[in-house]
Amino acid sequence: MEQSNQTAPHNGRCMSTETRESVLSRKSRMMKHRLFMKLRQKWKLLGLFEIDGDHEFYNLTCSLKEGLRAALQASIDKPVLDTLCDVDYKAVLTQVHEEFEMQTFAGPVFTHFRQTLGMAETEYQRSLSSEGFYLQFISNSKSKADFFLTNDKRFFLKTQSKKEINFLLQNLKKYIQHLKMYPHSLLVKFLGVHSIRLPQERKKYFIIMQSVFYPDERIVARYDIKGCQVGRWTEPASEGSQIIVVLKDLNFEGNCICVAQQRAWLIQQMQIDTKFLQDLHVLDYSLLVAFQPLHADERTQSWSFVNLILRTKKSMNVGGSPTTSTQTTVPGIVEEEVVSGTEQCSVQETPSTNRVIKKKVCTQLSAESDLSDIVAQNRRLLPTYKNPLHVLDGPEVRYFLGIIDIFTVYGFRKKLEHLWKRIRYRGQAFSTVSPSRYAQRLGQWVETHTV
């Protein structure tokens, strides 16, 4: 009996310990399973993280949606005039909500600009305030900015410093004037500037811009190009992985951008846009490039009669909406396609019937507008695509191209960084150089990497 009394408690303790260990083990397995399922869901989203209820930015993004819905409703209820004045560039709309405060800067200017792109305010509002979760994009950029994508992946929201926001607002009129002069510019399209203040938190400033890589369903490679080598390599994703990795200059070696007849247009537009950025005294901006193979039917229809008419219509009005366009001239086509006079249009490797069609379209274009104005604006025939201003179709591949990150001014700190890098990376090409050299180098990169 004594032996039995001594062993029973011992056995009970052992079973209790084993039970606890079993429970802990089961909980651990369940947590790992949940983590795996979350990771699997993130992988399904091609590396974009859903900002759901468990995410650190969930409350912020919910407030952003509510605030943006209200801010855009104000512009819907009170449409802007056809012409802008100086006070519109300095306008600040402050809206106080129950849990936060939001400010909208230069609202009438951005509303007017969105209209010139053919973007309906209700459509823009619906995308920014939809019930679907925002997506967080983890960038390999050195900046500490947070990147959010709308659920349809059409618009980027990016946090910026107050200094960067002030720089954009101070140069907003120049930016708008540049895009009015060159409506087919490669510069990223900024669509709004806002700030938000949550309780017990610092005010956050952010910009909204069109995603250069929209729609991205069939994109096979993405690159961030600065035209230099130092620090310009990113480890690619493992084979078969769907995680998004934005590669860099050194990763691009061995590739080229084949846009055939549109090469001259691309080179010239790069020169125009980088000269504009040089005049703003900025550097360290990037040329985004993405590849998407064309389907067989997309390759064969480029110069079909219907496609040519659709492209001409889209080019006449950048946004594709005749009711909202403020453009008064008809855009031309790629420089090699437009010659002098009213009828001459060169055609490369197209059937004879399409030669006649193109010649007639060019005649019609020249009859409606002055071709010299068209060439001066460096316009082109836009593709019939959702994001035509950032898309160029080559013979086999569709390219997405856009210039982003235009806020780094070549001030005292950057000049010191330039001197330090000259010593450390002697004989090597690095990003921190004068604005004129930066513009020249990125333009040269496009020339040497296009055919």
TrEMBL record:
Protein name per UniProt: Phosphatidylinositol 4-phosphate 5-kinase-like protein 1
Positions in coiled-coil regions: none
Keyword Nucleotide-binding in annotation: yes
Annotated TM spans: none
Record GO terms (molecular function): 1-phosphatidylinositol-4-phosphate 5-kinase activity; ATP binding
InterPro entries noted in UniProt: PInositol-4-P-4/5-kinase_C_sf (IPR027483), PInositol-4-P-4/5-kinase_core (IPR002498), PInositol-4-P-5-kinase_N (IPR027484), PInositol-4/5-P-5/4-kinase (IPR023610)
All copies of domain PIPK, residue ranges: 41-450
Residue ranges, annotated region (Disordered): 1-20
A GO CC annotation given for this chain: plasma membrane
Keywords, ordered alphabetically: ATP-binding, Kinase, Nucleotide-binding, Transferase
GO BP annotations, alphabetical order: phosphatidylinositol phosphate biosynthetic process
